[in-house]
Structures are given as structure tokens and as C-alpha cells.
Specification:
The complex is a heterodimer. Chain A is globular, with a radius of gyration of 19 Å. In chain A, about 40% of the residues lie in helices and about 25% in strands. By secondary structure, chain A is of the alpha/beta class. In chain A, the strands form 2 sheets. In chain A, strands 6-7-8-3-9-10 form a 6-stranded mixed sheet, sandwiched between helices. Chain B is mainly α. Chain B has one domain. Helices cover about 80% and strands about 0% of the residues of chain B. Chain B contains 13 helices and no strands. In chain B, helix 2 runs antiparallel to helix 6 and helix 6 runs antiparallel to helix 8. Chain B is globular and about 65 Å long. Chain B starts with a helix and ends in a 5-residue tail after the last helix. Classes of the chains: A alpha/beta, B mainly alpha. Chains A and B meet through helix 2 of A and helix 1, helix 7 and helix 13 of B.
């Protein structure tokens, strides 16, 4: 079994003269959480679409779990869970029915629907139509669908979208436990550094379609601290600490008063 | 696996307003024809209705079973082509308008199975509509007591009425291809409207039996007197259109970019 879960070699995607992904070489190790960090338009989603065979590379190659991704070849996706761009579902179907479609098409046992509902705390909304869910619960449904068939690899595009701070912490802990306890590889993209910094073992920074830096979280943190020491004023550092304090206080207060219904 | 794909395609229609809407639209047609027949049969009362009565009498159609079947054939032929285009556009295009195509296409299922399953769902949906509305039409015709009914006429009339929707279905995969190519529902419906107009135009030329969208109008008598049977060449054209549509849809999903 190769120890690389995701690999790209000289990967390029051009749209009508615009290069969205440019000679991308990427290796994501099995069992790690890889943060794919970049600004809007950096090429994160285009890369994820190519990993999932939704679009064809202009050149280069993609390998997922040891299988090269070729047009229309979908067998490997029985081992991959994914969330691409916005969390979407069939709006006329309930949460349970949406998950049952995923169960049927991945050949998973019946109990996996209830298990994934419980895992993502979707119980109160299980019989609610997906079109009536809040943004955060749509995101939970998309994550439940991604996890339902116990994949070896999770490819998540902005997984914290729409989640409140408590939800973000919860999903962060869930992904960490999947990686630590079950050896699931997580490839997650984000444009929010804090989200990646809390979770990823390694972080790749993509800009204008190119991987411009790749480091472990600790290495990146050290570089960031050194940079901040030089670049920030004491007032800016104070403001950053205040933001963290406020977030922690908010979480503590809302944990004391858990929500009783959907937002 | 195909059984599961087919089952999920039916599940996706749960609580969909489109199924009821298509039934409502098609089910309105027989009462409309019946009203027309009633106006023709009762010219005195029709005159009291003003323009509606005048127009009805101008057409020169008799209020008889053969005329009733003829008008039903027109409705199932022309209206049916558009309604079937809507059904196919909905089944394929909604995956893009609801942004669920990306979820569907990265599943461990051959993409061709989605095409086959959706076309089978369209066929089942279409057959159910036609069957229900045909029964409704027969019941209305019998209730009106139209003259000229016989078992033989009914068999011939029903066969004619059913042939047009069956032929229309052979054109459906092209609509599916336009839906996945354009990633939505508007373009395939617009395409069908344009083809219907072109079909009528070509139907008045010598090419009617060779242009796929003229064949149904030719059969049901929109562009000339209705024909009893189509030439073999027309069936070959329809079969080729069907195969080309299915192949193009599968190739589009398999080889083209399918982002939202």
C-alpha cells in the first residue's frame, strides 16, 4: 500500500487562457491532515475538482489512494468522502433520504445512515427537508454524507463554511479523531489560516495556482511568530489576543446554554 | 449497482412539484378538447359564447369520436413533445441547478448508469402521464356520448394517440445532452421550442420524413394530412437520433468538465 494518499505531478488546469492551477506537485501522506491554504481564486477548488475527477487536467496527473484518476473512472471514490464548494443536497428530500441515497450508491449498510446522523448531531433535523435547513446544518449534512461510507480519504473544501464557532470546534475535533483513531487522511482547503492552523499536520500554501510553501504546522507557526514579531505593532498583537479571548468566552457561555433548535 | 441507481433516481422525485405540475398540465388537455367538441356540437350555445364559438365552428371539426381521437393525437404529439422535454430537462438539469451534480459524479458509480437510469425514469414518468390522461380522455369522451364509437375505432385511435408520445421519447436523449452541456434546465427547453418550430417548418418541405423533429408533426397531421405509417427511413432517423443523444450525454458526463 503506497504511503501517499493524494499525489499530483505537474498538474495544470487552464480555462480559456487563464491558468488556474500551475505545475502543482503535491503529496499528502496517509493518515495526516493536510491543510491546503490559499486566498480566494488561488486554485484550491480547481485542484479539488481534479482530485475528484469532476474536471480534466490540461496536463499532468492525479493519483488518489494509489489509483490514477482518469476521465470517468470512479471506482476509487468508494474510498473517498468529499465536500466540494457549497454544501448541497436534494432540497425536496429529508436529511435521512439524502443520506440514504449516499448509502445506496456507496453500497453501505443500512445502519450507516443513523450512525452518520448521530455523528454530525443531525437527529433533530433528520426528517426535515434539506431545503429547509440552516446553512450550518446543510454543512453538517454534507459532512455526514462525506463520512457515511467510512472513507479512507476525506477531501473537504472549506469544511467550516456556515458553521458557528461551536460547530467549527466540534468538526475540528471530529476530523482530528478520525485521523488519530481511524487513520483517515484529511485533505482540507481553506482561506482561513486559523482554521487550518488548529487542525492540520502539514500546510501547503497555494497562490495563483502554484504551491509556494509547504511546512509542518509547527514550522509554519515558528515562521509566523518570527514574522509577527517584526511586522506587528503591540496594539495589533493586543487586538489579536482579544479576538481569541472573545472567541473562547463566547464558546464557554454558549456551552452553558446549549441551543434547543435550529438557527 | 444499476438497480440502486435506478431506485435513487425515483427517490429523488419524492415531494417534487414537477410530477404534479406535468400531470396537471396534461390532464387539462382532454377537458379542453371536450369543451371544444361540446361547442362544435352545440352551435346555438356556442354562438352565445361569442368568439370562442366562432373560432370553433371555423375549424370545421365534427364532434365525433374520430375527430376526438385526432385532436388527442395532436395534443399528445405536439404538447407531449414539449412536456417530455420539460421532464427530461428537469431530471438532468436540476442536478446542476440544485448543485448536486458534483456530488453525483464523484460517487463510485459509472456515470453512464445515471444517464440510463434518468432516461428510464423519464420513460416511466411519461408513460404514467400518458396512461392516466388517456383514461381520463376516454372517460370524458364516453360521458359526453360522442357518436361513432366502436371497439375497432378505439383500438386504432388509442394506437395512434400512443405512437406520437413513443416517437417523442426517441428525441428525449438529445434534450438530456443539451441539459448536461448547458448545466441547467432553460437551454434544453428553449432548444425543444426551437426544434418544434423548425420541425413544423421542415415538415412543409420534402425533407419532413428525414428531419427528426418533423416526423411527429408529419405523423399526426400538423403539417399535412396525417399519415397512416412512417417510411422506414424516418424510423432509422429517429433511432439514430436516440443513439446519438444517449452517446453524447454519456460522453459529456465522462470526458467533459462537469463543475457547477
Amino acid at each position: 500500500m503506497p504511503d501517499t494518499a493524494v499525489s499530483t505531478r505537474a498538474l495544470v488546469k487552464r480555462y480559456r487562457g487563464v491558468t488556474a492551477v500551475d505545475s502543482l506537485d503535491l503529496d499528502v501522506r496517509r493518515g495526516e491532515i493536510y491543510g491546503f491554504l490559499g486566498r480566494n481564486g488561488a486554485g484550491k477548488t480547481t485542484t479539488i475538482r481534479m482530485l475528484l475527477g469532476l474536471i480534466r487536467p490540461s496536463s499532468g496527473e492525479v493519483t488518489v489512494l494509489g489509483r490514477r484518476i482518469l476521465p470517468g473512472e470512479t471506482n476509487v471514490f468508494s474510498r473517498v468522502g468529499f465536500l466540494v464548494e457549497t454544501a448541497t443536497a436534494y432540497p425536496n428530500l429529508t436529511v435521512r433520504e439524502n443520506l440514504d441515497i449516499q448509502r445506496r450508491l456507496t453500497g453501505s449498510p443500512t445502519r450507516t445512515v443513523a450512525d452518520s446522523i448521530a455523528l454530525l448531531r443531525l437527529g433533530p433535523y433528520a426528517d426535515r427537508r434539506a431545503g429547509q435547513l440552516s446553512l450550518g446544518n446543510k454543512q453538517r449534512l454534507a459532512l455526514a454524507r462525506a463520512l457515511l461510507h467510512a472513507p479512507e480519504l476525506l477531501v473537504l473544501d472549506e469544511p467550516a463554511n456556515g458553521l458557528d464557532p461551536a460547530g467549527i470546534v466540534e468538526i475540528r475535533e471530529l476530523l482530528r479523531s478520525l485521523a488519530d483513531d481511524r487513520g483517515v487522511t484529511v485533505f482540507m482547503s481553506s482561506h482561513i489560516l486559523a482554521e487550518v492552523a488548529h487542525l492540520a499536520d502539514r500546510i501547503g500554501i497555494v497562490h495563483e495556482g502554484r504551491l509556494i510553501e509547504e511546512s509542518s504546522r509547527d514550522e509554519l507557526a515558528a515562521k509566523a511568530r518570527a514574522f509577527a514579531t517584526e511586522a506587528y505593532t503591540s496594539e495589533e498583537r493586543e487586538q489579536a489576543l482579544l479576538t481569541l479571548d472573545l472567541e473562547r468566552y463566547f464558546l464557554a457561555r454558549t456551552d452553558e446554554n446549549p441551543k434547543s433548535g435550529d438557527a | 449497482m444499476f438497480g440502486q441507481v435506478l431506485a435513487t433516481e425515483f427517490v429523488k422525485l419524492h415531494r417534487s412539484k414537477a410530477t404534479g405540475a406535468t400531470l396537471a398540465v396534461l390532464a387539462m388537455m382532454p377537458p379542453s378538447v371536450a369543451l371544444f367538441m361540446w361547442i362544435v356540437r352545440e352551435p346555438g350555445r356556442a354562438a352565445e359564447l361569442g368568439l370562442l364559438g366562432t373560432k370553433a365552428s371555423l375549424v370545421g371539426i365534427e364532434a365525433t369520436w374520430p375527430a376526438y381521437f385526432y385532436m388527442l393525437t395532436l395534443i399528445f404529439g405536439v404538447g407531449g413533445m414539449l412536456l417530455l422535454a420539460f421532464i427530461v430537462a428537469y431530471l438532468f438539469g436540476r442536478e446542476y441547478s440544485d448543485a448536486t451534480a458534483k456530488n453525483m459524479l464523484a460517487l463510485p458509480v459509472g456515470r453512464h448508469w445515471f444517464v440510463v437510469a434518468k432516461l428510464l425514469v423519464a420513460a416511466a414518468w411519461w408513460m404514467a402521464l400518458v396512461a392516466v390522461v388517456l383514461v381520463e380522455a376516454l372517460a370524458i369522451g364516453l360521458a359526453m356520448g360522442l357518436p361513432g364509437f366502436s371497439a375497432e375505432l378505439a383500438a386504432t385511435g388509442i394506437a395512434h394517440v400512443l405512437l406520437a408520445p413513443a416517437i417523442s421519447f426517441l428525441l428525449a436523449p438529445v434534450v438530456a445532452w443539451i441539459a448536461v452541456l448547458s448545466r441547467g434546465e432553460v437551454a434544453p427547453i428553449a432548444f425543444s421550442l426551437v426544434m418544434l418550430a423548425l420541425g413544423n417548418l421542415f415538415g412543409r418541405t420534402g425533407w419532413a420524413e428525414w428531419f427528426p423533429y418533423s416526423i411527429v408533426p408529419l405523423l399526426i397531421g400538423v403539417v399535412a394530412d396525417p399519415v397512416d405509417s412512417l417510411p422506414a427511413g424516418s424510423y432509422a432517423v429517429l433511432a439514430a437520433t436516440f443513439v446519438a443523444g444517449v452517446a453524447a450525454t454519456i460522453l459529456q458526463l465522462r470526458f467533459a468538465d462537469n463543475a457547477q
